[in-house]
Amino acid sequence: MFARLAILPYAIVSYAVFTASFLYALGFVGNYVVPKSIDTSIDVGAPANLGEAIVVNLLLMSLFAIQHSVMARPAFKRWWAGSLPIACQRSTYVLLSSLILLLLFWQWRPIPTPIWQASGITAWLLTGVHWLGWLIAFASTYMIDHSDLFGLRQALVALRGAEISGQSFRTPLLYKIVRHPLMLGFLLAFWATPEMTAGHLLFAIANTAYILVALQFEERDLIAEFGATYQDYRRRVPMLLPRIFGAPR
């Protein structure tokens, strides 16, 4: 009973850290409010040289990508099931991901060399798409199960002493248009900016590459879990780009 009672505060703390990292990400990517963003730094002294900035930034993004992908795989989940209760596995995953994100924000080396700079209606449109991307990403978590995605449901189920069941396959709202609206939202938020710098471009390219690779592993896991149901879903619904014309593939 004590262990079950401890899991819920742990899940709440993990969710609070995630919330902090997500809110900071809004300012970091968009260069809003936060003291250190993708293009600005509070560090005193000469900026990092280009080679150091690229290496450090790629290492930070690689650290997030490795942790985020490896811990999400079923084999890893089976491996640590013997030492960590299932009820707090998702919260631990969320906590570690959020802490690595905060590390990335802290240690990021801006590369402010301009790539493009839009103005007028173009800048407004790009800013609108940027915020639309964040809205799609956040809303997508609620279209499936926000509490399950961030470990809160598992903690509440454990508190009641019930068995944690798996999620059924559903395709609500945006999931009827694309298979991964959460990732589509991130891509829009990362790429749509009226002021693209070399550092921001590096961030967008690296994260796009990671998303495209990670989705292949996620799709493989979903096929293994849901079988023909997911295979049929893949045939009917595109992965990231909404289908405007043409028959379902």
Automatic annotation (TrEMBL):
User: Which membrane topology describes this protein?
Assistant: Multi-pass membrane protein
The residue ranges of the NnrU domain are 59-193
The entry's family comment says: Belongs to the nurim family.
What is the designated name of this protein? methanethiol S-methyltransferase
In the UniProt record, the signal sequence range is none
Q: Which InterPro entries match?
A: MddA (IPR054700), NnrU_dom (IPR009915), Nurim-like (IPR033580)
Its biological purpose: Catalyzes the methylation of methanethiol (MeSH) to yield dimethylsulphide (DMS).
**Predominant localisation class:** membrane
Q: Which organism is it from?
A: Bradyrhizobium barranii
Database matches in PANTHER family: NURIM (PTHR31040:SF1)
The top of its lineage is: Bacteria, Pseudomonadati, Pseudomonadota, Alphaproteobacteria, Hyphomicrobiales
Protein localization: Membrane
* Keywords of this entry: Membrane, Methyltransferase, S-adenosyl-L-methionine, Transferase, Transmembrane, Transmembrane helix
| EC number(s) per entry | 2.1.1.334
Q: Does the keyword Transmembrane helix apply?
A: yes
